[in-house]
Amino acid sequence: MNLVTLAWLAASTAVFVAANGVLKTYAQQGGIWVLAGALALFCVGNTLMVQVMRGNGLGVAIALSVVFQLVAITAMAMVVFGEKPSPLQLAGMALGVVAVLMIAWPEGQA
User: Fold this and answer.
1) Cα–Cα separations (whole angstroms), residue 83 to 17, 79, 92
2) What pTM was estimated for this model as a whole?
C-alpha cells in the first residue's frame, strides 16, 4: 500500500468515525436531521473507500477499513462516550489488527 492509498484510508476512517459518533448521538437523543447527517457521512466515507479499493482491491480494502474503523471507533467510544470494552473484546481487536497486518503485508519477489 502506498502513501496515497493510506491517506484515502485515513480520510475514510475519519469520516466513518464521525458518522458513527453522529449515529450514537441519534441513538441517544433522536432527531431526523441527526440521522440524515449520519447517513450523509456514511455516503461520503463509502465514496472515499472507492479510492482504497482501486489501489488494493475489494477484499484488502474492506479488511483494512473494517479494522481501522474498529480500532478508531472503539477509541472514540471509550474517550467520548465512556464505554469500556471487556478484556476479551480488546483481545479480539488485537487479533483483528494482527489479521489485517497479515493480509496487507507486502509479499516478496517470487
Assistant:
1) 15, 8, 16
2) 0.77
CA–centroid distance for 45 within its chain = 9
Q: 11-48 burial string, b = 16+ CB within 10 Å, else e?
A: bbbebbbbbbbbbbbbeeeeeeebeebbeebbeebeeb
Whole-angstrom distance, CA of residue 82 vs CA of residue 101: 28
Burial classification of residue 96, based on how many CB atoms lie within 10 Å of its CB (0-12 exposed, 13-18 middle, 19 or more buried): middle
Per-residue pLDDT band for 92 (boundaries 50, 70, 90) equals very high
Rg for the chain (alpha carbons), in Å?
A: 15
